[in-house]
Amino acid sequence: xxxxxxxxxxxxxxxxxxxxxxxxxxxxxxxxxxxxxxxxxxxxxxxxxxxxxxxxxxxxxxxxxxxxxxxxxxxxxxxxxxxxxxxxxxxxxxxxxxxxxxxxxxxxxxxxxxxxxxxxxxxxxxxxxxxxxxxxxxxxxxxxxxxxxxxxxxxxxxxxxxxxxxxxxxxxxxxxxxxxxxxxxxxxxxxxxxxxxxxxxxxxxxxxxxxxxxxxxxxxxxxxxxxxxxxxxxxxxxxxxxxxxxxxxxxxxxxxxxxxxxxxxxxxxxxxxxxxxxxxxxxxxxxxxxxxxxxxxxxxxxxxxxxxxxxxxxxxxxxxxxxxxxxxxxxxxxxxxxxxxxxxxxxxxxxxxxxxxxxxxxxxxxxxxxxxxxxxxxxxxxxxxxxxxxxxxxxxxxxxxxxxxxxx
Length: 408
What we know:
Layout: H1 2-11, H2 13-45, E1 66-72, H3 75-79, H4 81-99, E2 106-109, E3 121-125, E4 131-139, H5 143-146, E5 151-154, E6 167-172, H6 173-180, E7 189-192, E8 198-206, E9 221-225, E10 234-238, H7 247-258, E11 263-268, H8 269-312, H9 314-322, H10 327-355, H11 367-397, H12 401-407
Parallel strand pairs: 4-9, 6-8
Antiparallel strand pairs: 1-10, 1-11, 2-10, 3-4, 5-8, 6-9, 7-8
Helix pairs in contact: 2-8, 2-10, 2-11, 4-7, 8-11, 9-12, 10-11
């Protein structure tokens, strides 16, 4: 039966080539959209604000009741050695003043706060002589209190690090695994930084810190202690729940009074989070809309092509009916032919998709999401082609032998 249907498909290869091409490209688009949607959904579903959560369920921090004050200054002042040094000292005084502001639970500097779309990536020496890329940030002793970070092992930065000759570092689980593999990293030293000349020592291990939010992957993250001779680029500060919106005006006035030559931008972290979520969801929604219209066009086109194909095969189908074929067998034949064309297109697309991991594409998603995307795309394409084949196959099954004679 299958060999006979393959022969029929080959005899109408020009018409069927168009159908196969439509299904082929539709499958690729549906696969890409499904994989992205499943990955984002999984990341969101497994995110939690519970600081006790670990592993993939950990967000790593609490974004609620936090303000972010960004500090900037004219470039000519920053590039001047004397003025730049004075400006850095002023930014540290601003940080100290904010920490003493009534209503502030804790405040800390941060170069790349969560949801800020900014990252710092450095190279660090790992076990077996490897060098790995890890995201990093410079923060103070109060940062763990601001972001509600719960340590898994070891400790956060403290006064005991004031007289050390090494640079203390706190690693999340991903960074610890990337640098030390399965070995225990606590208390061990490693080298890194831009010039690979800085000696770090691990003082604590924390849960994975997903800086870019619930829909981001858990990248390896390292925190080092902020040096007070540096520039405070951002201040993250926690306020008590229920703090009125008037606090923002009070904070702006205090910042301007402490650093009149500086420029400040104040944002709530929940607003930054909404912006980050919109940024990540927009491509997915746009892809879903494009996929919907593409599938609709493919469905309509496929239905029309099959309808026309059934009309052209009036004589063939009429002869089958005259030879004793039942209407259900004709219906089954047409549907099976369509499913056979779909299988050919899907196999061709599957061969292409199987090469993507080898080329480094879709490495940002898990193997489970990749597999689920293939399954979801298969289910969608087969459901679409089956739906499109129902009406043309029903027309074919209703054809009577006398209509084949009238066709002649």
